[in-house]
Amino acid sequence: MAKGKKTAFFCQSCGYESAKWMGQCPGCKEWNTFVEELPVSKSTGKSAGNTVVKNDPVSLRQIDLKEDASLSSGLVELDRVLGGGIVEGSLVLVGGDPGIGKSTLLLQMCRHLAQKGIKVLYISGEESLRQIKLRARRIGEFTDDLLLLCETSLGVIEQVIERQKPQAVIIDSIQTMYNEEIASAPGSVSQVRESTSVLLQIAKGKGVSIFIVGHVTKEGNVAGPRVLEHMVDTVLYFEGDRHASYRILRSVKNRFGSTNEIGVFEMRDTGLVEVKNPSDFLLDGRPQDASGSVVACSMEGTRPILIEVQALVCKTNFGIPRRTAAGADFNRVNLLMAVLEKRLGLNLANCDAYVNIAGGIKMHEPAIDLGIVLAVISSYRDRPIPDSVIAFGEVGLSGEIRAVSMAEQRVQEAKKLGFETVILPKVSLKTVDKIKGIRLLGIQSLKEIKTLGFLD
Ligand code: TYD
Ligand code: MG
């Protein structure tokens, strides 16, 4: 760093600023993430938001909402996580591991917008025009309204947007963008933050919808999207097992709609295809008459999703039992096993236990507790649970089965997919007793599991 200029250290993972180098970041507790950078001086740095609106305050009642301000992205699943569609002048961050399909998703969205005659500008700092064309060829035909630009300098990008006046802009990715006013390298916290604040001003000032791609990195050598989560309107994370074909788009922050909505896609050789019925998709290939497998139900936003919970309990060969949880919360699984040990007297202390949510999807809703518990008991006793049974409910520390929200939707989904029996918390029974044609077994505590008849 140049002598005489005061530098500071920034955590590349969360943006924490410190005068001296530290091994562990006090903000996000990551190790080895501090990098020396020139801080942005207050006079040159454009800070987010405060230069956008220069006029007088107006009364809330006078603000006129234009009819139908949001545009459809052409993908129902994407519209859902966006809160209905693309809002004019919004800034959306799409995060995810490299190679998960962020560029593909956004290119597909651009294709649809361009087909409707909306001018879209796709700016790539990572790929050449040829590479983008190769990807586009797999997706389909494009119209002339999609413009491509390979550029990393924000100054140039700003001029191009000024000249072309597109309605939507894609920045792929923010970690490659470079603002000449800032001395630090592209991808560092100051660069990423300042570039985003420039984009924020373009979005709000010109009413352009901007989508920013941000890579999530574990190593911390590139600033993660967390640094800019607070600046943007909507944060979407694209997740999924790289080896499995489906991808889940999750909204973690949304100023225009509810969060926790998910969109499910499948990666095919012709790009991403929407999965209309995720439960069907996730239950595909379920084993028949196998112990340790049960179907549970989790709500993702407003949608119930049925998943298969699998458990494998076997004798420990070494002193300390081994436990793993894939897709479910590890601590929660340990807690549920302790409850089983204490309340039902299962001798799990000598057993290894592996719990898995099939398909690699991550589910953290407490409503899948009952599913995990049943799968563990089923594997421990080596007694299969009938295929036509699904279970949901939260399990408390004293072994009680507690109510969960939206029981009715869950039962309806089970019925739609042809399940015959639902095991649910007894207190939820009164909200669902209108539903006919499916057997409802309400239980109050874990002790009642033996009365179900298939797990003794
Ligand atoms: P990409 O959109 O480049 O990922 P990101 O921008 O998040 O880094 O997607 C890359 C992966 O998707 C790559 O492994 C190839 C695969 N893919 C398909 O399987 N089918 C397709 O039609 C396309 C375009 C990509
Ligand atoms: Mg990409």
Question: Can you offer a commentary on this structure?
Answer:
The protein is globular. Helix 7 (330-344) packs across helix 8. Mean pLDDT is 87; it is low at 43-50. It is built from ten helices and 23 strands. It is of the alpha/beta class and 456 residues long. The strands form five sheets. The protein has a nine-stranded mixed beta sheet with strand order 8-7-9-10-6-11-12-13-14. The protein starts with 7 loop residues before the first strand and ends in a 13-residue tail after the last strand. It is 24% helix and 26% strand. Helix 10 links the parallel strand 22 (421-425) and strand 23 (439-443). Bound molecules: thymidine-5'-diphosphate (TYD) and magnesium ion. Thymidine-5'-diphosphate binds next to helix 2 and helix 3.
